[in-house]
Amino acid sequence: MRQIKTVAVFCGSNAGQGEDYRLAAQALGTALAGRGIGIVYGGTHKGLMGVLADAALDAGGALHGVITQRLFDKGHLHPSLSVQEIVAAMSVRKTRMLELADACIALPGGVGTVEEFMEAWTLNQLGDLDKPVGLLNVSGYYQPFLTFLDGMVKERFLPQEHRDSISVASEPEALIELLMRATAPTAPKWL
Question: Which class in CATH covers the domain with range 6-181?
Fold first, then answer.
């Protein structure tokens, strides 16, 4: 079983529609803090990022925020983080978050969330990382994306083992357990 000390969490800087997403972000922050797992994230107080951070902090968790200078200058930095880093660009932020993390979880979010998740998954697929990735599939949010990936497998653009390397669960505790048991794919990327 993997030892996971820190998880990079990718999630929306918007809160989404309805309460399900907020409740899931709170539950994930609380679950990670309860296990003594630190969180590295985009460092803002906005949207699901802020909800996640507040919940983890309320539960005694450690949060490491990595925020870009531009977002810092707009006043988006969460004021109560355990550690904060201000970096020059989004590419630096993503690299730093992956350096600090032992695993990655994506809550629902927008384009940036999906892009961050995809980069981590791609680096795992290429063998440049061995840090498992997971989707917290709140209210089926990621189901269309997972169906799209299944289409990649069907059309032979993606090996099934690589598709299966994404841990997916609708509850934080179940997802954390899956990530702790995750193994790197051994099948080659090329079909």
Answer: alpha beta
